[in-house]
Amino acid sequence: MAELPRVLIVDDSRLVRTSLAKFLQGHYEVREEGDGEAAWQSLVLDHSIQAVISDLQMPKLDGYQLLEKVRTSKLRRLQEMPFILVSGEETEEERSKAKALGVSDFLNKGCGATEVLTRLDHLLELFKARQNLEEGREHMVHDPVSGLFTRKYVELQTAQALSHAARHDSEVSVMVLGFDGYAEVCERLGGEVAEQVGTRFAKLLAGKIRREDSLGHFAIGQYAIVSPGTSPALCASFANRVREAVEVAHVAVHGQRVILTVSIGVASVPDDQVVSALSLLELAGHRMGEAMAAGGNRIVAGEKGTATARKLGVQHALELLAADRPEAVMPHLQRLGQQVLPLLRVLDKEFGLNLPLAEIEHRLSERTQAEEKSERAVL
After folding, report:
1. Are strands 214-219 and 222-228 parallel, antiparallel or unpaired?
2. pTM for this one?
3. What phi and psi values does residue 80 have, to the nearest 5 degrees?
4. I want to staple 274 with a disulfide (CB 3.0 to 4.6 A). Which of 17, 138, 279, 318 is the partner?
5. What is the C-alpha separation between 284 and 176, in angstroms, rounded?
6. Closest to 338 measured CA to CA, from 356, 373, 362, 304
7. Burial (CB count within 10 angstroms: exposed 0-12, middle 13-18, buried 19+), residue 277
8. What percentage of the chain exceeds 70 in pLDDT?
């Protein structure tokens, strides 16, 4: 048999509680409390309670105070729970107070079982209908697996941001990021695990964006961020911080280390001449594809969409080495060496290390000349 819905009856009179419980017998499961404070504790702890029938005059917390705590609770299930007050000879002013606090309905003392059941059945049916409606809307907005915004909702948010920007002569930037070699990651880890890893990164990213920004799905293994009022330069700067964070992240799946990088495309209005929200998102997605095609782990932004990989700084190089990623540092050794030479000189002088600084500087200079010669040959 299916479990009966549970109702909390709150009254300091045992006789009244017993009478109401008898009315509900066979239709509802009943929990009883003799004062408002005990009732509040039960509501917080007992998630099976679906409705409350409460007296007004009670010790510790009266009916008004209990109702107010329920409606101002941070728990959404309590905010919307059917709450019936059993009234006696209350004035119209007192009833108005209860309505202002959010009471669902009133029962007169002395009413019969039929009326109690009818009122309660009606309120619970209405409550369930509202819940179903909210769940339907939630699924339209959020992906049921990841909890992130759906692609359709991201498009809607982009359209709203563009409309606002047009009215207030402001900017809108969009970045689309995707994991490089995502197909290979899926093949190695399995599609479900790969999706979980991607969602984990996306949720971490959600904690770094502004409240007015929107983060959601773009495609499989790809995500979009809509950023109203943000210039292309600021958006690209944030995109690069995201790229660097993914590059040095420690990710292990079933004890196996997974090295991940992302490519990011950035598009902005009014810099990019687009006519719709969809075209702005698609432009950012196209630029992400260009970044991937150019080798990945880079950002494409701007009118020409030239693929660029930000020069590696010393701090990020150290983070890559700490993440056991020396191969990502090797192409930048010459420039990094030039940057740390002054520090090596200070260390050598302070600690008397007798480092071969002249030889190091000579080797770095040779590498610089070779790279410049190679670049001239390409041109």
Report:
1. antiparallel
2. 0.54
3. -105, 0
4. 279
5. 6
6. 362
7. buried
8. 89
Q: Which residues are bridge partners to 71 per DSSP?
A: none
What is the spatial distance between Cα 76 and Cα 288, in angstroms, rounded to a whole number?
39
- At residue 373 the predicted structure's pLDDT band, cuts being 50, 70 and 90, is low
CA-CA distances (angstroms) from residue 184 to 64, 179, 190, 254, 298? 61, 10, 9, 17, 19
Its sign, for the CA torsion 119, 120, 124, 127, is positive
* Amino acid identity, position 343: L
With H, G, I as helix, E, B as strand and everything else as coil, classify residue 62: coil
- Side chain identity at residue 296, one-letter code: G
The answer for 91, left when phi > 0, alpha when psi is -120 to 50, beta otherwise, is beta
Which position has the token pair 């409460």?
54
Rounded to whole angstroms, how far apart are CA atoms 242 and 235? Answer: 11
Q: Which of 237, 241, 210, 204 is nearest to 223 (CA)?
A: 204
Both tokens of 341, joined, read: 């030479």
Residue 45 DSSP symbol: H
Q: Which two tokens stand for residue 41?
A: 């504790």
Q: State both tokens at 347.
A: 């260390």
User: Residue 364, CB half-sphere, CA atoms under 13 Å: how many?
Assistant: 16
- Kindly list the distances between the CA atom of residue 156 and the CA atoms of 102, 293, 310, 314, in Å, as whole numbers in the listed order: 33, 29, 32, 41
pLDDT above 50 for 339: yes
Token pair, residue 116, equals 């109690």
Can you tell me the distance from the alpha carbon of 37 to that of 12, in angstroms, rounded to the nearest whole number? 11
CA angle 57, 118, 128 (to 5 degrees): 95
Instruction: Please give the pLDDT value at position 117.
Output: 92
Whole-angstrom distance, CA of residue 177 vs CA of residue 55 = 56
Instruction: Give Cβ neighbours of residue 36 (< 8 Å, ≥ 6 apart).
Output: 10, 54, 58, 59, 60, 61, 62, 63, 65, 66
Per-residue tokens: 23: 């009315």
Q: Which has the minimum average pLDDT: 3-7, 103-107, 273-277, 373-377?
A: 373-377
Give the Cα separation of 143 and 150 in Å (integer).
Answer: 5
